[in-house]
Specification:
By secondary structure, the protein is mainly α. The protein has helices at residues 24-42, 47-54, 59-75, 77-86, 90-110, 114-143, 148-176, 179-198, 207-210, 226-230, 233-249, 252-263, 268-297, 300-319, 323-351, 358-387, 389-409.
Length: 424
């Protein structure tokens, strides 16, 4: 007897998912979990290179450590998502991942020798592969697909605020005390992160919705198979658009930073700091609005706005030389970051609705992100060295325009309609 296809909620085959209303405690717990987790992760950014340099490491050794973390972070995206899909307690997975990062932070601070730091970098990268999907899973499990857009906007706001606050705090601590103290502070933030996670009520997280599954009287093994998921046309197209986004975006700020440093090495650190802070502020301001508009306008218009902002930013970087104007141009980076910070998990939730593989699909998109970012820096650096900065920036702008065209011509609208019917 042929099994029926899984029925979407509202079609009469399955019970529609309830209009989830998590408690204010759980909502605020997730807010602060994301905020403090961003603080923790900030400590493993540029501060790693600074700290290891003070410990008399060579640039080759530092580069090797960063490469190890990058490789693990790339190949671990899909396994990390699969782990979250297989778990029955998203909070437990999140807690273990955060604790692992805490151990890594202490290892950096206590034993800055190559074997220990290499192991710490591997553990940190592996845990980070889990944390992105698990945050989205907890969010979806708490609020359900109807309210996920606004919740993801709220997530992006608190992540941006956490990044900004942590950069300032750790910069001051590193200056007043030592670069080693940054990792001690990261461990303190780990404790705050775990306390915030404990505030999220476990019973309010629907495990099926957290994995993108729906209640169904008779499971359809075809629709819930991984092979079926990976052949979903919207997912494949969206992976291509995210790849083009990173290919265009990842190299822009590093390339601009190198140019500014060549022109004025003394004022470069302050200028680069402003170029990082401005987009974070924009994300904090507009991300919740992006989440709300995504439910009204749909996903495609916002994706096209983000790619248009990225293309204009690349073109302006090619022509603008005034430092103040360069900082102003970074407002466009905030728009792009706000849109994709919300759209990536939101569109993945749309496409995987009913499959039970929401988090694995996030790993697929995360892999596209990593490949695009890696190629961006390599290709843009080569073009800049051989043809000049202007050509490199215009090339990145052209890639952004190609991404806009892919969205316009090929990307279907994935917004879940009334009754949660998904477009095929």
């Amino acid at each position: 007897m042929k099994s029926a296809r899984p029925r979407r909620a509202g079609t009469g085959d399955a019970n529609p998912p309830p209009d989830r209303r998590p408690s204010a405690q759980s909502q605020r717990g997730l807010d602060w979990f994301i905020f403090f987790l961003a603080d923790v992760q900030t400590g493993f950014g540029p501060f790693v290179a600074v700290y290891l340099t003070t410990q008399k490491w060579t640039q080759s050794e530092i580069g090797l450590i960063l490469s190890i973390g990058g490789i693990i972070g790339l190949i671990g995206q899909m396994p990390g998502g699969a782990v979250v899909d297989a778990a029955r307690s998203e909070r437990l997975v999140a807690g273990l991942a955060v604790a692992t990062i805490g151990v890594s932070a202490l290892a950096y601070a206590a034993w800055p020798i190559f074997p220990v730091i290499a192991l710490a970098a591997i553990l940190h990268a592996a845990a980070s592969c889990v944390l992105g999907p698990v945050i989205a899973a907890i969010s979806l499990g708490l609020v359900g697909p109807k309210a996920i857009g606004e919740r993801l906007g709220r997530n992006a706001r608190f992540a941006s605020l956490g990044n900004g606050v942590a950069a300032g705090v750790m910069g001051v601590i590193g200056y007043l005390l030592s670069s080693r103290a940054v990792f001690v502070v990261s461990f303190v933030f780990v404790i705050a992160t775990l306390l915030s996670l404990a505030r999220i009520r476990h019973r309010e997280i629907d495990p099926e919705q957290a994995h993108g599954a729906t209640a169904c009287a008779e499971p359809d093994l075809d629709a819930t198979s991984i092979a079926h998921l990976l052949h979903q046309r919207p997912l494949v197209i969206f992976a291509c658009t995210v790849f083009l986004l990173q290919l265009a975006n990842a190299a822009m700020l590093p390339l601009m930073a190198g140019i500014v440093t060549q022109r004025s090495s003394q004022g470069a650190p302050a200028l680069i700091a402003f170029c990082i802070i401005v987009p974070q502020a924009i994300v904090a301001l507009v991300a919740p609005t992006v989440g709300r508009k995504a439910q009204v306008w749909g996903r495609r218009p916002l994706l096209m706005i983000a790619f248009a902002a990225l293309a204009i930013r690349g073109a302006l970087f090619a022509m603008v030389h005034d430092p103040v104007l360069l900082v102003a141009v970074q407002v466009l980076d905030g728009i792009t970051a706000a849109v994709f910070g919300v759209m990536i998990p939101l569109i993945v939730a749309d496409v995987t609705f009913g499959s039970g593989h929401f988090n694995l699909a996030q790993g697929v998109i995360g892999t596209a992100v990593g490949i695009g970012a890696s190629l961006s820096n390599m290709v843009a650096g080569h073009v800049s060295d051989h043809f000049g900065h202007g050509v490199a920036f215009m090339g990145l702008a052209a890639v952004a325009l190609s991404g806009l065209l892919v969205v316009w011509i090929l990307m279907p609208e994935t917004r879940l309609r009334e009754g949660l019917e998904q477009r095929s």
